[in-house]
Amino acid sequence: VLKDLSFQVKRGESMAIVGSTGSGKTTIINILNRFYDIRSGEITIEGTDIHKYELFTYRRRLAMVLQDVFLFTGTVLDNIRLMDPDITREQVLEASKIVGAHPFIERLPGGYEFMIAERGGNLSMGQRQLISFVRALVFDPDILILDEATSSIDTETEAIIQHAIEKLIAKRTSIIIAHRLSTVRN
To answer: DSSP letters of 41-78?
Structure first.
């Protein structure tokens, strides 16, 4: 699908990739995440080929917010910090406030200790998406990838999610994937 593709995203810029199903949008993201390699050419970050980075170190620089949010059975806090002991509760609270998720989390029974059901079955799609935005922010990535991150949200949380996106992409290199241009116009 992808041949002779070339683009540059400068530090702090946002780039949108818009196209129909099967056009290669997610393939670009998979390549950037090093889920599989390219046959020719190169991908660099600040002039360094991405294959020169140790994989774990490289992936710590990236955060992805997907259309289908993966949540595991556990507390809201654990789902946000992905069991990383280096991320404190205070960091999670601060990220939640910045994104705008703190009020909804505080309203849950037990707040940040609320037990999420498998795949987030006891939360709305918008709530799951907000948790994924907090997760992305708390890891403070250099590069943020949003892959159809707003396509399944309910109208109740749409304004909060738009605010969350603005906060997440501020001062961060961002790649935003969408099927429709109207989704990424702003």
So the answer is: S--EETTEEGGGS-HHHHHHTEEEEESS----SEEHHH
